[in-house]
Amino acid sequence: MGWVSLLLLLPLLLRAGDRSLCTISFPFIQVCGKTLTQGRILGGQETTLIQWPWQASLKYKTHHWCRVTLIHSSWVMTAAHCFQQNAHDPGAWKVQLGSRTIKPHKLSFSYLHSRRVTEIILHPFYFGGPPKDIALAKLQSPIRFKRSILPICLPTSTTQFENVTMCWVTGWGRIKEHEYPRKPWNLQAVELPLIDQKTCDLYYHIGTKLPPFISRIYDDMICAGFKEGKKDACHGDSGGPLACEVKGIWHQAGIVSWGDGCGRPYRPSVFTNVSVHTDWILRTIKSNTFSLMPSKLLFLLTLQLS
Ligand SMILES: *[C@@H]1O[C@H](CO)[C@@H](O)[C@H](O)[C@H]1NC(C)=O
Ligand SMILES: *[C@@H]1O[C@H](CO)[C@@H](O)[C@H](O)[C@H]1NC(C)=O
């Protein structure tokens, strides 16, 4: 009886062990935010994935829909509004990692770095529009990290970006309001100054009749861009990261959420402030990640054998 149940259990145990080994050999806290490249590119230009290896495309059926960032070998983060009506149907979504273009060439073996989504978790207080425009998606199987696939760090303290003034937005979206992304749909990067929530709220009241006590920019939002407009994150970039380098390590300060037009004066891009949600993110990942430690596995095996 003992042997029979062991034989039945074995494949299950081995699979579980395999999965936990992956998370053990890649503790995401330690490998995050470091790119394997020297030097950097300049604003508003095409860029390589090795410089932004956490950047991925979220596909609905076969279409590029939003951007996501890799924060763990099995988890990506994006804006809640990206899932809209289809959060109940994780099977329709896919994440394409390790590809510089949203339409990878058939011979590039990009499917090796593509994963189905098995779980979609929207922020519990997201009600169809910002604030709380944040969501997590679990990948069907963990992704193996390599030069072009690495996670970005989450902010660990609220003062972390205190002395940071310039951050980067990367994406495949439009550069100008009436301009569509063009072939070959390569990744673009733009450097933007951070704007705190209060200043941004002031800007967003300019040119409106809205009284100042009615906020347009809520507590869990931050902005980035120039007062006079011009460079911006723009449409089609939803869900993507606002990434800031702090002491040589890249952290995700924001998630592209919304904006008013594109590159207009006093209308900088608005992001979900990730610092506000770090606790929720870590708690959600922890409570939805099954892991059986090898020590427990051995214990179970000896239990069966004895
Ligand atoms: C920001 O700069 C000030 C002055 O140099 C310093 O005291 C403070 O510790 C810095 N903050 C962070 C988070 O590095
Ligand atoms: C983001 O949220 C944190 C935590 O509430 C806050 O300390 C920080 O100032 C916010 N960032 C901006 C730029 O407003």
What does this structure look like?
The chain has one domain: Trypsin-like serine proteases (Thrombin, subunit H, Beta Barrel). By secondary structure, the chain is an alpha+beta fold. Strands 8-9-10-13-12-11 form a 6-stranded antiparallel β-barrel. Strands 2-3-4-7-6-5 form a 6-stranded antiparallel beta barrel. β2 (55-60) and β3 form a beta hairpin. The radius of gyration is 21 Å and the shape is globular. It has helices at 2-25, 28-31, 197-205, 274-287, 294-305; strands spanning 45-46, 55-60, 63-72, 75-78, 93-96, 114-122, 135-139, 166-171, 188-195, 221-224, 241-246, 249-258, 269-273. The chain is built from 5 helices and 13 strands. Mean pLDDT is 80; it is low at 1-29, 39-45 and 295-306. The structure holds 2-acetamido-2-deoxy-beta-D-glucopyranose (2 copies). One 2-acetamido-2-deoxy-beta-D-glucopyranose (NAG) binds at residues 159-160, 162-163.
